[in-house]
Amino acid sequence: MRHPLLLSVCLGGTLLLAACDQDKQTAEEVARSMKDVNVIDESNLNDIMLTVADPNEAVIYFKRAVADNPNRIDLKRGLAKSQVRAKEATASLPNWEAVVASDQATNTDRLDYASALIRAGKWDKAETVLDTIPPTVESFERYRLEAMVADSEKNWKKADSFYSTAVDLTTKPAGILNNWGYSKLSRGDYKGAEKLFAEAVAYDPKLFTAKNNLVLARGAQRNYEIPIVPMNQSERAMLLHTMALTAIKQNDVATGKGLLKESIETHPQHFEAAVRSLNALEEGV
Questions:
Q1: What are the entry keywords (predicted)?
Q2: Average pLDDT for the chain
Q3: pLDDT at 31
């Protein structure tokens, strides 16, 4: 008579254990799912911090993350990138060193490290790092950096070759054309520089740096006509100011004075820099 009761108790116990096991399994699955969600959320947040977030805020975020997870190379990489974005290239170097010394380092990391070294003015070290990257890595960034290093060594033939290759490897060559033009300008090849700056503006009509450099290249040839490029009134006034200073530097003072006056008249607001230049010129300073 007691067997049915015993059977009921056993069955009840089995069901209870099964329920407990099921609850335990469900809890573990939920924990794993939450962990996966947290990883995804962290990854998304890291991406946001590396792209659209304020650079200084990103530095603070990654510093805290590295402090909590000192062995995470991905976080040190994020910190180094954020420091470069925040114009703290020198501060980023220890973090880049840790990244490239790890077994998780990539050739992209080495390129980013070399770029940070160049920003910090450590040209020799940058060249050493670039030499560690296999020649099979033929990217725009690699040739851009190689060109800059060659420029620093005044190896013009090598620099021109690297700049030319870099231009062919990007669909947005305005920036690299501007850099190449500035290289030509520093060598005294004003006509070559003018051609490259004009190309840069053609690719990116909003790149004011290239417009300004174009004026410098023309002015160095004593061509004081403002180039025909897209510009608003304020930009035209600033370009006239640059051209005026170039003329004055070459002792074409009367021309420079006229350009300064035109610059002041052209600017839609008060152009303090041009006014100061004109006053200094008239006072013989």
A1: TPR repeat
A2: 87
A3: 43
